[in-house]
Design goal:
single chain, alpha/beta, Aspartate Aminotransferase, domain 1, Aspartate Aminotransferase, domain 2, 2 domains, 14 helices, 17 strands, globular, binds pyridoxal-5'-phosphate
Length: 404
């Protein structure tokens, strides 16, 4: 069970007024808020043991290195990777995808095919298009239906011996749809293709078991799971990470450097050039502990109650249309009211203290599919309340009356 009073007290930012009204933060799919323990961990690192890692023999450097490597092990256990060095610490999902997409340049030939889904964030589309430009590989797209679900029978038709790689998100950030990733992975493996799962939007709601999924690559960002910005993971199976060339050259990623030839460091350091976001990685580990203490089952069931309540409530508004109506959804409601531009509603309800996202949500192909410029997206977290949903409803009714 989520003790909502206690949970909200952990998040100092929630207890404030915005534009004279109590803040109602419903933009969790863009980034969620940070509990005090995560904020404290950053302050504590810089106030007591800030030092560069993996280099110094001095005490602070060892403390920093230990804390950084402990965070990697927490992440290994949380995501259930077989080896800690299969967890590469990156700047976030976008960075992680670019490491893989760039690495595949030397592994693809002209005419090879790679498969994306219609439900992707731009950061899981554009790096692959760039890869196709470099290699002459061909990008195929699993289509979606009106409910905002992938059409799996079309996926079956796209798979062939030409397919080398499939990359889909676990949860769509624009609609909240939960995709059938186990089926996607198994079918790709049947024809010998590798799979990358973008977990940026699912990881705050669903704890994945990477070994059970048997996925080849998995990427996520700390800032959507109560951690800081600018940190994330790239998980890769050991054999894949060995196959991929390094992404960036620099310090930390080398074994030996001479002007004639440089040899690369072992995993994970091969992909961790330069001084990383040490405080951020340590805080990411603290965020993971915090989430696990709450319990992912508790989080999912509470958020599902919020979703059901909000869906019923918002549908009472005449002319309100929800995009993304799959039975398998996280707590995201993407909608429009009549012909009103989402931006106009977002601006008015901001004056009433309510933070939602408006626009295409970095997923323009989905908006094109529905032939709309964008949506208003209310995305919920385990610290949101039923009263906040009522405030959202009241604000939308008011905005509608002002704009119609
Ligand atoms: C947020 C998000 C990304 C991008 O994450 P960054 O932290 O901005 O790199 C990619 N995919 C999905 C599904 C997302 O929700």
């Amino acid at each position: 069970m989520i003790d909502i009073k206690k949970v909200r007290a952990d998040f100092p930012i929630l207890n404030q007024k915005v534009n004279g009204k109590p803040l109602v933060y419903l933009d969790n799919a863009a980034t969620n808020q940070k509990p005090q323990v995560v904020i404290d961990s950053i302050v504590n690192y810089y106030s007591t043991f800030n030092a560069n890692i993996h280099r110094g023999v001095h005490t602070l450097s060892q403390l920093a290195t230990n804390a950084y490597e402990e965070a990697r092990i927490k992440l290994q256990h949380h995501f259930n990777a077989k080896k800690s060095y299969e967890i590469i610490l990156t700047a976030g999902t976008t960075h992680s995808i670019n490491i893989v997409a760039t690495g595949f340049t030397s592994l693809l030939n002209e005419g090879d095919e790679i498969i994306v889904s219609a439900l992707e964030h731009h950061s899981n589309i554009v790096p692959w298009q760039m890869l196709c430009e470099r290699t002459g590989a061909i990008l195929k797209v699993i289509p979606m239906n009106l409910e905002g679900e992938l059409v799996m029978s079309e996926y079956d038709k796209l798979l062939s011996i030409k397919t080398k790689l499939v990359f889909v998100n676990h949860v769509s950030n624009a609609l909240g749809t939960i995709n059938p990733i186990k089926e996607i992975i198994d079918k790709a493996h049947n024809i010998g293709a590798a799979v990358l799962i973008d977990g940026a939007q699912s990881c705050p709601h669903i704890k994945p078991d990477l070994q059970a999924l048997d996925v080849d690559f998995y990427v996520a960002s700390a800032h959507k799971i109560c951690g800081p910005t600018g940190v994330g993971i790239l998980y890769g199976k050991e054999e894949w990470l060995n196959k991929l060339p390094p992404y960036q050259g620099g310090g930390e990623m080398i074994k030996k450097v001479t002007f004639e030839k440089t040899t690369y460091a072992d995993l994970p350091h091969k992909f961790e050039a330069g001084t990383p976001n040490i405080a951020g990685v340590i805080a990411f580990g603290v965020a993971i502990d915090y989430m696990n203490e709450l319990g992912f089952d508790n989080i999912a069931s509470y958020e599902n109650e919020l979703l059901q309540y909000a869906t019923k409530k918002l549908l009472q508004i005449e002319g309100l249309k929800i995009y993304g109506t799959s039975q398998h959804k996280t707590a995201v409601i993407s909608f429009n009211i009549g012909e009103i531009h989402p931006y106009d509603i977002g601006t008015i309800i901001d004056k009433l203290g309510i933070a939602v996202r408006t626009g295409h949500h970095c997923a323009q192909p989905i908006m094109d599919f529905y032939k709309i410029p964008g949506t208003i997206r209310a995305s919920f977290s385990f610290y949101n309340t039923f009263e906040e949903i009522d405030l959202l409803y009241d604000a939308l009714v008011k905005a509608k009356s002002m704009l119609c």
